[in-house]
Amino acid sequence: MSAETCIHVRWRGPIGKAHRIKSGVIGGAMADLKALIPAQDLAAQNEAHFPNESREYRAARNKLLAEEIELRRHIERVARERRALPAGGEVEKDFEFISEAGPVTLGKLFLGKDTLMVYSMMFGPQRGGPCPSCTSFLSAWNGTAVNLRERVAMVVTARSPIERLVEYKRGRGFLHLPFVSDGSGEYTRAYVNAEDADVPGFSVFTRRDGVVRHFYSGEMSGKMADPGQDPRGAPELDPLWVMLDFTPEGRGVDWYPKLEYGKG
Fold first, then answer.
1. Which sequence spans correspond to the domains of the chain?
2. Mean per-residue pLDDT for 187-213?
3. Which end of the chain is more exposed for a tag (fewer CB within 10 A), N or C?
4. What pLDDT score does 33 carry?
């Protein structure tokens, strides 16, 4: 199925006069929508019903559906604003890392792509083991890497020696993720934490006309967490938490992923 077909299916359904389309789908790009039907009106068109559901359930579910439509639109608005950010700072130093094959610079990590994603995990040399939450995310990233690397370059870095990172990578079966060691800590201090603290980070870099620039980094610190919530960014990088949001129990307040779970 082509990208054009996928988008057509995604947008299939009744379209009112308020839903004016300026242009069609070109090369998989979403149409430029000049006006949108109110979310409540779209939700009112919902024909879904399931066995033995009550009227109260259906009314509440349709109300939730309208909120989900608004959420989808807000996610797209934020993504559009992110894409429209002015040019970030030029990366003047070609940071050096140690890969499985030896020394490699930041510029070489692009592998011919225009965009590079770098995830910095909590696995410094002082840690007894890798961060379970970082490992949870990397488990998902390893799976999506098969598709993601067709569009962008991607790499995982940490402050531990490369030998330790390779042992971790192989032990977890992260066959699709390249790992590099930031042994000097120069990259970490510049783009993760100025104090070289053992914290996670996610950054995106671009290369245009031979110039590498910083495009985006997650900046939601623990000080920005809402009451009763663990510090986290938005959108959520780890699909584990997104899936739990679909359950009656939700994310919970005292459960976190582990490196290993008991058997039996």
1. 3-83, 90-264
2. 97
3. C
4. 53
Per residue, what are the HEC states of the chain?
CCHHHHHHHHCCCCCCCCCCECCCCECCECCCECCCCCHHHHHHCCCCCCCCCCHHHHHHHHHHHHHHHHHHHHHHHHHHHHHCCCCCCECCCCCEEEECCEEEECHHHHCCCCEEEEEECCCCCCCCCCCHHHHHHHHHHHHHHHHHCCCCEEEEEECCCHHHHHHHHHHHCCCCCCEEECCCCHHHHHHCCCCCCCCCEEEEEEEECCEEEEEEECCCCHHHCCCCCCCCCCCCCCHHHHHHCCCCCCCCCCCCCCCCCCCC
CATH 3.40.30.10 for the 90-264 domain, yes or no: yes
d(CA 142, CA 147): 10
pLDDT at 84 over 90: yes
User: pTM of the full predicted structure?
Assistant: 0.84
Q: Are 176 and 99 in contact (CB under 8 A)?
A: no
